[in-house]
């Protein structure tokens, strides 16, 4: 339709179409996204650092600067897997837009999400150094969350040009009494970038800090227990957000079983009644305060596909000796969850 046709359009003749609440929310989030920026902590302190160390360090605390770098926007596109993984990340994420340069490496944080359990951050970096195909970051390389008592997670880094790389980090912080806050304060201070194939290490001074609000989710309490003679597994809850599904669990293991094995970890096989596979033999981060006897953890996967009415969660316990010295699988009864409409 041409601009002239738009200007002469009679809105009284338009046929209205029903739109679901989900689609309304997605449109709303998409419109508001460009105006929603992550709060930057200690901005005055950051400015002071820039002024003092201008010869070796450059920091940009404003998203407009980051957006001028061509590969900075929509970093998540490099990590899309088919139609499902992170498909709504760009709609519901917060634009962080922080950039810092040190020793020939410019590091940029693009977007981030806090879904109530996990913090997911997309980032990129551009370098004057020849790192080769594979780059890693020396510890401490994790994104840290204020108030956490521990954390687990993963990080992917992919080369996209001779000088540019993109990354995706997923961090699951653990808090005392498992009380997840409504807002998390996130910091990241990578120290060394190094090549896994070349003899090259680059030290620098990069430091980021930002805040994320929790995505609105719908938590469903389950508290359903399945047992083996040596294992009691309780699915405590399941939470649905716009981009993910999160199950939380507690597991008790007998002293007798732990005398034979160093640890017992639940692996999950998760499907719905329509046959969609969400998790295929994977686990998630967990914590224990009593040498693996009690385990508290969570696993995150894609949002439930439209039309599904049941979720089938099959735990398979992997009893193992550390350092790959042996393992055994213990299959528990499946847990079936009726999904609320």
From TrEMBL:
Species of the source: Lysinibacillus macroides
Signal sequence coordinates: none
Transmembrane segments: 44-62
Pfam families attached to this UniProt entry: DUF4179 (PF13786), DUF5643 (PF18705)
Keyword Iron appears in the UniProt entry: no
Keyword Chaperone found: no
Keyword list, A-Z: Membrane, Transmembrane, Transmembrane helix
Occurrences of domain DUF5643 (ranges): 219-338
Domain DUF4179: 40-126
InterPro entries per the UniProt record, alphabetical: DUF4179, DUF5643
Protein name per its UniProtKB record: ECF-type sigma factor negative effector
């Amino acid at each position: 339709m041409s601009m002239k046709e738009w200007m002469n359009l009679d809105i009284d003749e338009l046929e209205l179409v029903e739109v679901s609440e989900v689609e309304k929310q997605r449109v709303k989030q998409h419109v508001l996204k460009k105006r929603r920026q992550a709060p930057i902590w200690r901005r005055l302190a950051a400015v002071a650092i820039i002024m003092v160390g201008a010869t070796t360090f450059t920091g940009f605390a404003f998203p407009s600067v980051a957006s001028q770098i061509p590969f900075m926007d929509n970093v998540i596109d490099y990590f899309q897997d088919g139609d499902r993984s992170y498909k709504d990340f760009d709609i519901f994420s917060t634009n962080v837009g922080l950039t810092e340069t040190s020793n020939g490496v410019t590091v940029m944080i693009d977007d981030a999400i806090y879904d109530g359990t996990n913090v997911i951050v997309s980032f990129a970096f551009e370098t004057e150094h020849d790192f080769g195909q594979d780059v890693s970051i020396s510890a401490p390389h994790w994104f840290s969350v204020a108030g956490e008592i521990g954390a687990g997670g993963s990080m992917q880094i992919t080369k996209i040009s001779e000088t540019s790389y993109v990354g995706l980090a997923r961090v699951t912080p653990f808090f005392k009494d498992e009380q997840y806050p409504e807002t998390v304060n996130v910091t990241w201070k990578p120290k060394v970038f190094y090549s896994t194939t070349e003899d090259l290490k680059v030290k620098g001074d990069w430091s980021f800090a930002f805040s994320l609000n929790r995505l609105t989710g719908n938590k469903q309490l389950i508290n359903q227990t399945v047992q083996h003679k040596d294992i009691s597994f309780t699915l405590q809850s399941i939470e649905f957000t716009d981009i993910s599904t999160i199950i939380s669990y507690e597991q008790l293991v007998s002293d007798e079983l732990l005398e034979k094995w160093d640890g017992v970890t639940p692996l999950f096989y998760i499907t719905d009644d329509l046959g969609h596979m969400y998790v295929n033999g994977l686990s998630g981060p967990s914590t224990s305060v009593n040498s693996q006897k009690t385990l508290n953890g969570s696993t995150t996967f894609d949002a439930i596909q439209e039309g599904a009415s049941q979720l089938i969660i099959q735990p398979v316990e992997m009893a193992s000796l550390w350092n790959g010295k042996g393992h055994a699988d213990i299959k528990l009864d499946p847990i079936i969850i009726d999904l609320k409409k």
